[in-house]
Structure prediction request, 1163 residues.
Amino acid sequence: MIPVWLLSLASLCYFGILFAVAYHADRKHAAGQSLISNPHVYSLSLAVYATSWTFYGSVGRAATSGLDFLPIYLGPTLIAFSWWFLLRKIVRVSKEQNIVSIADFISSRYGKSAFLGAVVTVFAVLGIMPYIALQLKAVAYTFDHLSNPLAGPGRALHQLPNFGFRFDTALVVAIILAVFGVLFGARTLDASERHEGLVAAIALESLVKIVAFVAVGIFVTYVLFDGFGDIFTDFLARFPEKRNLLMFGGGENGYAPWFSLTFISMMAVMFLPRQFHIMVIENSSEEHISSAMWRFPAYMFIMNLFVIPIALAGLIMFSGNTAGADYFVLSLPMQYGQRWLALLVFIGGFSASAGMVMVSSVALATMVLNHLVMPLIIRLRIEAADISGLLINIKRLAIVAVILLGYLYYQLIGESYALVNIGLISFMAAAQFAPALIGGLFWRRANRRGALTGLILGFVVWFYTLLVPSFVRSGWLDPSILDHGLFGLSFLRPLELFGLSGFDIWTHALFWTMFFNIGSFLSLSLLTRTTRNEDEQAAKFVDVFQPHRPPAQRERISKAPSIMEFVDLMAKFIGEKQAHTAISQYLGHREIDERGSLSEYELPNLKRFTERTLAGSVGAAPARIIIENYLATRGSRMEDVFDIFGSVTLSRTSSREQLGVLYESARLVASGANLQSILDDILSLLRQQFKFDLCVIRILDEDRMALVVRSQVGMSSQHLGESERELTMETYIGSTFLTNSTTVVNDTDFMDKPRSAQIIHREGIKAFAHTPIVIEGQPIGVLSAFSRTSKGMLTEEFIALFENLAGLIGVAWRNSQQTAGLIAAREQERELQIAKTIQISLLPNSTPDLPGIELAGICVPARQVGGDYYDFLPRSTDRVDLVIGDVSGHNVGAALIMAETRTFIHARSADIGNIHSIMQELNEFFYEDLTRAELFITMFYCSFRQTDRRLTYSSAGHNRPLLWRHNRSACERLDAEGMILGIKPRVVFEEKSTQLEAGDVLLLYTDGVTEAAHPDTGQFFGEERLCTLLEDIQHLQAQVIVDEILRQVRIFTGVHNFQDDVSLVVMKVGEVLGARSA
Amino acid sequence: MSKPSSNQPRLREAWVLFFILGIVMLNYPLLQIFNKPVTVFGIPLLVLYFMLGWPLSIGVIYLFSQTLTNDDSGPGKENEPGDEE
Prediction:
């Protein structure tokens, strides 16, 4: 006998601990950490399966009917084995589809059907309510039992001595549990429906349960008796007739109920709403499933290890009286004065009840809110700026209501039926969800009608075969229905439906419910078709483990809402803060174009995202309806878009890919046909395969700075097809070119360039695209395609193809340009080769051999042909003329001029005689040609007379030749006034002369020598250096001097080839044979 | 620890085998073998059968769970509160 105050105090303390743990876990969760996200907690939380039925009822059942308490726990062990495949798939789907309850799961799978969700919710509430009643009853009874065992079973009314009023324990417990449920299960409208505090409390309770039960088990087995063997021996000795408790027999102890119960519990452990919630919704990681697979059965095993010993001990203790068998667990410690142990056991049993009630109420309340209340709200079109406050309060109300309903049931019915049976009735109800759920998970053809019919029929049969008999046993219904059947029809007897007799109530009910449920599910799914919605959902569920999914159906939204409008819609239901968090997470992954809105093809995804987010709070079906209503009121519609690739045919020449167009075009470009036919063929291909009405290629004409049509196919309309486009931002083509980016207008109702819009509308164009044709990053033209027939056909995939085509066109264009260039270059190359040959033949190929002087000369052109010229002109035995000249430029033109000069000099100079006249006539003769060609010539002409060694010279602006005077060992420059040839028509040239001596060296050169630049300093070679060099080498032979100068210049510049033509003439005056010697 | 996914089909086969075995061992024909009024160490045979067989099957599940890999898990694997950030 434990005083009421102690019991109450202990209970409240325990509650306090639970509150604290739950609160702490929630705080941690809000801070981003998770206490519960580990496999131990997950497995412990699953043990909410062990309610007060396990705690008390198992012993009761073991004592009364023997081993058949066991299948309830063996079943879960068996099915735990399948969890890696089954449960994991359910969890994966649920996380992806943001599913928050079992009703949500089933409704979502079958096309987000609101009606199906409502049906599941109603059945769940009806089915679980008795179970809640059961828990409250257990608490009340045990409380009563411990505090007032002599009063016997009855309403647990007590009188607190200090307070003086009566209270009903069950009601108090119900209220406290409701408060707990509201606090930890409905604090916010969390889009994921995860309640970490709740789970933490449940896990703690599971721990307490097993500790308490094992404690009393050890007490009974090893303290009261001497171990397992002792108990059995003692029992069998005293009650030999009861040995069949420990074996299988007929009737209630037979194999059929064994199997049925195993099967039922296999289903129940997964599909009871509270189990589904804890197992699936509260699951934080799929990995935990693999450890829960063995931990949970281990828990079950340890819990049940001592059931039989306790039951037998109880029977022994109470002389085979099974009246209070349900509470042996309490009675035994009490009997032996172990009050604290009894208190512990009470707390354990209390945990068992509390856990079940808390989780079930939250799970059921979620379902009621999402599937019963929300559709009502939508239908009644309740408008409010922010419904989220209303929603959360409805949920809290639902939690309280569910628990109170359970309480009512307990008050009305709970007395008359043993604990275990009530529980089994709920198990059977949960099993009705199995076909629709498991079938939907693996069978794509399972459809809504099948699931709906299966569920309804299953529940009807469940009601009839299980609830009706229980009502009869409670005295509510006339027993005649059991004996004679409904309306007196004997084959409608609830316990022997359709004549199936000889089975226990569970097997019987299981058989018929499954028969009708699975039967109609299968037949209707096979006989009726699935809707598109269902197919979509089916794929998401059945194929959730497939590595890749087919892309979503191509859709677009006409008159689409903007992002902010979607956010406002979400905020209305889940609150501003949550809505903004959700949208910023979503946008982080998406591209937003410059205008701050999403690209057109992202909008359907945004719609789907909004729907999913809302589903987390209000359920999938209501969310779908909300979104559809919202779009409908705005006039936005989801449109199927003409699948542009659907019509691409395979060409007969073997291309197998969908993008045969690209392949064909690439082939055309590479074929090397002429440019025009390539362009025309590409456009034909484009138009033909994609059913465009017009395709145009425009290339920039640099002279006119306009985009000129180079090729077009399709309709010939004056304006569109053939006219040029200026480079302006006011037309789409212009802006495409100028911004070097693709322009797509999928719906010509929405254009923002009035000029283009006018033309487009006049021609009846519905959609068009322009893309720049680019070579090496720079646009050179625009590719355009127009369609008169369908809007919205220019998808992202097509645009990618389109841009690729433009790239190919660019390549084709560049190829043709380069080819032309190459051909031209090659032509030029050949011409130059010819010119070089001619020019070389015009230069002296040998030096004349004259007595008294050494001559040497060289001309090294910078390029193929040069503009330099030098010549030796022996006039007579006495006189030799030297000339060096430089035409500006070194190309064919310069070379030709120089050739002409040579001809003139050769032809005329002999006749003219004196030098300055030669120069004058040269100037006059060439003035016009040089002016027209914009060239000029510098020249130095000198004449050497052997007899008196006199050098006469004239210069036309040429570099002053160097004269090394042997006597003075110094360099002299020969200067003569004279303008460059080709500047003025009439020029007077100064003629000078000087006396040469033996050993003198005359060096004529062109500016290629003196203006040769040093690679690093940029300094020129210069006259000075040339002088110094000449001084060093003047003693060498003329040819060697020439070579050495060349060598030095090359060393100076560091390269072998010269920038400018280099020419050198050296004349060395030697001893005259026989002259002056005397 | 991961096994190559070529073990997946073998894993499934083993699973199916054990599942069926479990069902068989828990039901009528096989149970009848142990359904005799015999006691071992004072414990009735059937009870002993369960007391030993049950942990044994849990052991099998444990072994099975140790060989599980997460080959076919995709992006939805972890559902930590980390997605609160």
About this structure: The first strand of chain B starts at residue 39 and ends at 40.
